[in-house]
Queue: 2 jobs
Job 1
Amino acid sequence: MNCCQRKKMSESSLPTFAVKWSGKEFPIEGLSDSTTLADLKQLLMEKTGVRVERQKIMGLKCKDRRSSKLIITKHKRRQNALPTEVSSRPAGDTDCLKDMGVKEKQKLMMIGSLEESIREAAKAPNPEEMPEVVNDLSMEEDIIAVADRPEFLDKIQKRVETIEIKEINAPREGKKLLVLDIDYTLFDHKSSAESAAELKRPFLHEFLASAYEDYDIVIWSATSMKWVDVKMKELGVTGHEKYKILFHLDSSAMISVWIPDKGLIDCKPLGVIWGKYPQYNRQNTIMFDDVSRNFIMNPQNGLKIKPFRDAHFTRDEDRELIQLARYLKCIARLDDFTKLRHRKWERYLDKYDK
């Protein structure tokens, strides 16, 4: 047995975990306690082809353990250390994975683009090759019928009874409610980029700060809570000084409804929130989503936002959030949103400006 083999055997191994990137999952196993973040990035480059300098592994924090100063007795016969203090900081490439608290079967998310993807993104798109945008829910009669179906209302009631909402900030008296989707509403989750900030919809923070003056804000995504939390942190929404988020909801708060000729559709029923927080209701709630079927149970409260795609090419022209901030400000003075037709929100602004 050579020296290297003896060293490898003497080192304890890290838990097996996985890294998700571009819709794929890469198992990571057999790493030792001495493995650094730089080592992991090198391994991921071999597995994914993404260069080390373009990788960002989200959510990793390095634990710093330090003891406070030693207390030495008069006779200097013993030294007593005060309890160890633990703090955390963003992980650096030279930090060991063992100090980052990676757990067995944990799934980390990596952001980073292949070189060919970056080169392709730099090219202007051919208009003839752009996909046609199709109305995802042109079935108003079905919407009206679905919203009052007792079996679907029962599903909502079960969600109200079973779901646990982790409140981030307390509701404020007298505020209306704004419910926001993430993907393609606040964030282009498909385009290639070196960081989430590059895919943030223009004027996101200005929009949220303006809305917060009149509305409590809820983030509701069709993904898992883990990714909701990560995205909000990476976009700089969590902990922002000019606005606060009431809470996050994920796919577990959604329900499935059956529509003739359309099949099974997952949606975001606002009744789940209203059942938990009765101060919010049809009269004072509005929901933005790029997919209108998500508010099929509450069509009167939904506003279909223009999807934010191809961030590299559209960010300079996208003014959707600026205009919607104005719309929210205009209607905030109203007592009843049910009298509005949100799909005509731009006409409402034009009329308001005259």
Job 2
Amino acid sequence: MGIIVLLVAVAGCGAEPEQDHSYEQVHFPDKQSMEKPVIESKETVSTLVKPEPLELTVIMKEHYLDGVIETTTTKETIWSMMDFWAEYKEWTVESQEIDRVVFQREVQDISPLTKKQGYFGLTEDGDLAVFQGQPGEGKIIQSFKPVPIKPLESKRKSELENGIKIQSYQHFEQVLTQFSHEDPV
């Protein structure tokens, strides 16, 4: 009796189950239906990560050797954060918020403003300064109060009172050195 049951059990295993060979047609979503979420959910998850693209306000501060700080503000659409950071690899992050990044960098040159409108001159107190425009008419860009002025001969003093046009960074350094008191006391 034990042998018959075993044969029936083995014979039952060999039978193939019925299979359904009918196929359903699969529909892929078209472009219009992709604009709506495929799975709708009533639950929302709060996150600090915004979906791409990300809109950022980017502020760039360039610090020039003549004391001028030029600030440029732009709005950028960020598709890839790796590309964004690579674009500003020469800059230092001053501050960062979710929708704003402030970069700064030191520029080893005088500013375009000084190249275009800069003059060395004397302030009312007799200090050497860089003016935006002619001394007496333009505003002071940078004053060199810690730099004592050598006693000037009348020709040199007259040059500074009229203003010495700044031509380049080398000229800027040359004039600054020329009028600075470098003699040991």
